[in-house]
Fold this protein.
Amino acid sequence: MPSLKDLRNRIASVKATQKITKAMQMVAAAKLRRAQSAAEAARPYAQRMAAVLGNLASGITVGPETPRLLAGTGSDQVHLLVVCTAERGLCGAFNSSISRLARDHANRLMAEGKTVKIICVGKKGYDILRRQFGQQIIELIDLRSVRQIGFEQGEQIAQKVLNLFDQGAFDVATLFYSQFRSVISQIPTAQQIVPAQIESGAGTTDAVYDYEPDEGEILATLLPRNLTVQIFRALLENAASEQGARMSAMDNATRNAGEMIKKQTMTYNRSRQAMITKELIEIISGAEAL
Amino acid sequence: MATFTFELVSPERVLFSGAVDAVVLPAVEGDMTVLAGHAPMMTSLKTGFLVVTSDPGNGKRILIRGGFADINQNGLTVLAERALPEQELTQEILDHEILTAEMHYDATTDLAAKHAAEAAIAQLREAKAALNY
């Protein structure tokens, strides 16, 4: 049976924790709003890009002249996984669910005898994946010092991926991130980025296009840019998802702390009353004995 | 004057969306003006000013750093890599842009990329002169 002082201390510490989780929840809510509007503002560009690319690609027949970013290298032996996670924890299952998806994917590929290489964006995913795939991780991209994700970060990561591709370091690249649905629902997603997946028929027109310079050249510059846009979009979605996940995790934590405080206050009051009753009985029985 | 729909989007946001009379694009093979009913075409853009005219004598200038224009029967869509409206431009931003372009020029060994960077620097200097900085 803990003493009254112990109980008081325990209640005080839970209260302090509750204050922290409450504050974190509110910070996450404020950040979420910003991240969400950034993600929404970036959507039109990605959509138009997909439409333009769809238009362009629908008029092209895959041949030896087709850029390899679209047609692929003709093999699928070496896979590159770009795993985007958060830099910080305390956001529920956010990091672990992305990592789990990536891990399952990697395990499946390795069971098929393929080679797997991993680029981690964000420290948390690296920490989780390092244990099992220490050999496969080729790079960790740290975005901790970045306050607001800009297009430059997307460019920087895309440049690394493109350099690796030009060196022939991989055949297929897949991007792992969490898609933001709502505060309570973030969906871990795997998206193939190399060779590019093009939704055909999105905005196809029958009109005959003029190209300036020529079709192939436009496609050759458009494809790397599309890669950048996809990565940028994934980073923004991820940022919004992270804040959403943290907000609901901290909301849960605050509620649990509240329950714990209630329970412990009850125990505290009970034992306090029991002590008073005990003391009274002692006094009364002492008086009766006289 | 007949109008058409024009949309200017940069990766971060939509900068312009609405009906306009004419748009001058800094296309890679020379500036071009797009009017309503233009033939479908797709072109790459270089660094330079994009001029939007929504009513005669009232133009808006926006500095574009590379991108794409897609002209079809639905209108004109410009996907700019970076876009800075004239009123948001300051000397510091321009100087910074010039500096990054110069660094890019020094960093690349590829001849085509060097030419592109050189052209971008020239365009940015021109923009700086045009804005009297």
Notes: The mean pLDDT of chain B is 84. Residues 41 and 49 of chain B are 20 Å apart (CA to CA). Chain B has two domains: 4-85, 89-130. The longest strand of chain B covers residues 41-55.
